[in-house]
Amino acid sequence: MKYTVTPAEKSTVKLTMTFTPEEWSAAIDKAYLQNRGKYAVNGFRKGKAPKHVLELYYGKGLFYEDALNILYGEHYYETLAAERENFFPVGEPSLSVDDLSDEKVVMTAVVPVKPDVEIKTYKGIKINRFEYTVTDADVDRDIQATRERLADSVEVTDRPCAMGDTVNIDFVGKLDGKAFEGGSAEKYDLTLGSHSFIPGFEEQVAGMEIGAVKDIEVTFPEDYASEELKGKKAVFTVTLHAVKGKVLPELDDAFAQKMNCDSMDAYRVKVRERLERNAAARGRNETENAIITEIAKGASAEIPEAMIDRQEDEELRKLETDLMYQGIRLDDYLTYIGTTRDAFKKNYEEAARKTVLHQLIVEKIIKLENLAATQEEVDAKVAEQAASVGKTAEEYKKTLQPRQLEYIRSDIAVTKLFDFLMANNEMVAFTEEKPAKKPAAKKTAAKKAEGGEAPAKKPAAKKTAKKAEDGEAPAKKPAAKKTAKKTTEEA
Question: How far is residue 270's CA from residue 133's CA, in Å, rounded to a whole number?
Fold first, then answer.
């Protein structure tokens, strides 16, 4: 087999493979042996008829398609491996047969490849460096959140419900006096102040007493997911069945010991150290994003649709995972907002194009500056990860797949890249006085591109908590997650 490679339009290459008569004949023989059992001819047991008999009976081209597939499978990937230094495929090829005769077979594969990116400049740029400080108030908020998480739940019967309580309610939503789909439920557990429902709902439930029935008027947000509900006023008839309050643990040494600390002072120090690590990680992450975003303003690449499509699929998988943590299936969510997977995926197109461009920029500068992980750096990172899981470096290394080691090398190279970029650009401190947060611990469902809301978390799987209708009141839209640094994952 001989082949030629020529550049084609839109970040593709044209791979033309020419096969000799001998190669073509051998492929047909293989196709015959693989498929002869499918055909029957009078006078022969099934699968025993000679090739020339089957070709006479069914036609000369009987095995052509399978033979072409055999040639493709045996030679296409072998050719890609031989050309790995010249181009990197990023999607499946478009195949055609340009010539098919007894003398030769010519097959063409138009292959989408990773494009080169043109970068105007990546040094001497003025870029924000994000920094976040941790205050005593941040420490107090974190400790309070831990108290809330560890609080005991108790039945409340001697007072009206209040924000922070978990109430068990029935509700029926109506527009212009008519109940609407997904606006009703029975025996639903709702934590007041969780912002699970549309603005104003939970605040109006607060103050109700057990057994009370109340009409609550709310207005759906203008950017609500459902076209039929956005901006509309609705009335929910709410019946309160039960109230559970919280009893918070005391902030004493016994509480600290539950947190594996000797005293509250030691626990506060531990919390502050964790928040400071998180604040540093957040600042670093946002600074890296700011650097690449600024460089990308002067960068361009002819990105093939295969790369965009793959990134869109990745974003959809992230959404599916986020929804899964809320007990919601992606298909149910898409049905709720009235769309399909393919249509919804296109909402990610702009973000996917931006992400791919950023990845290409990272890879290009790493190559230009010859930034790579040394074996000593890889060994140190492996030892660090091993210690975190209580294993020796040698034990841990045996569990790692080659791809995992390659990821470690890539991560070290990317860290070196951003160290280099911070040292070679004018980094201007940008301080924002906000509470230090954990680096985005999977928030609720990823933001819908149309600006809609994600469905509320389903009631706990209790036999007593059945829904009256198919769907819940929608939840508040989560904050958009910042894009973390990452390099292109090469297949």
Answer: 16
Q: Are 459 and 328 in contact (CB under 8 A)?
A: no
Joined tokens for residue 160: 């009206």
- The whole-angstrom distance between residue 331's C-alpha and the CA centroid of its chain comes to 16
What residue spans in the chain does CATH classification 1.10.3120.10 cover?
126-134+265-431
Residue 463 or 130, more confident:
130
What three-state secondary structure class fits 247?
Answer: strand
Rounded CA separation 82/90 (Å): 16
AA identity, residue 446: A
Q: CATH fold of 2-113, please?
A: Alpha-Beta Plaits (3.30.70)
Instruction: Name the packing angle between helices 51-58 and 21-35 (round to 10°).
Output: 90
Query: Is there a contact between 92 and 306 (Cβ–Cβ < 8 Å)?
Result: yes
- Both tokens of residue 33? 């042996």
Highest CATH level, class, for 126-134+265-431: mainly alpha
Instruction: Kindly report the three-state secondary structure assignment for every residue of 65-112.
Output: HHHHHHHHHHHHHHHHHHCCCCCCECCCCEEEEEEECCCCEEEEEEEE
Which of 77, 51, 75, 49 shows the shortest CA–CA distance to 62?
A: 51
Residue carrying the six token digits 């709902």: 201
C-alpha–C-alpha distance, residues 220 and 203, integer Å? 15
H or E segment at 3? strand 2-8
Please say if the pLDDT value at position 449 is more than 50.
no
Q: Residue 225 has what pLDDT? A: 75
Q: What is the mean pLDDT of residues 177-204?
A: 92
pLDDT tens across 350-362, in order? 999 999 999 999 9
d(CA 351, CA 362): 17
Q: Which residues pair with 6 in a beta bridge?
A: 14
> Is 280 in contact with 342 (CB distance < 8 Å)?
no
In CATH, what number does 152-247+456-478 get?
3.10.50.40
Print burial letters for 322-354: b (CB count within 10 Å at least 16), e (below 16). bbeebebebeebbebbebeeeebbebbbeebbe
Q: Dihedral sign, CA of 57, 59, 61, 65?
A: negative
d(CA 104, CA 435): 70
Residues of the chain with CATH 3.30.70.1050: 2-113
Q: What is the dihedral of CA 150, 155, 161, 164, to 10 degrees?
A: 10
pTM of the model: 0.71
